[in-house]
Amino acid sequence: MYLIAHEHILLAAGFTSAEELATRLEKSDYDLGINPVKAIPIISDLVNDYFAGDLTALNGIKVRQPGPEFSQAVWKAMRKIPVGTTMSYSDLASRAGSPNAVRAVGSVCARNLIAPIVPCHRVVKTGGDLGNYAFGLDYKEQLLRHEGALQ
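Predicted structure:
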């Protein structure tokens, strides 16, 4: 898993290359410069704790990603989905204050640059089908199994 942070605030995370994540950063964040390190104090520890079994550890990571008001509302609601549970795109749209914006929620999930810390993997289709995941359904399924949302 790759992480990009600035002053202990996570800007990007994911299961792709750091270079790919960097290309998706807002220009102002990209212009801060990317300096490869083996670990980011506090953030790397919390990510490692999560994968070691402390499933609430990711909640302690501060994040920032640019986006319009609706996207911010969706990402904020996403972070409130409890570990070990899933939520439908429809329910997430309601939680974000726009119950009819189900497709827009899917687009916001696809633009989430801080997965799995902003847990778009916990968002599924109505009826429980997994739906999509930017890093592939194998990653989504593994994360949901790790959290106990899938058997």
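Summary: The longest strand covers residues 9-14.
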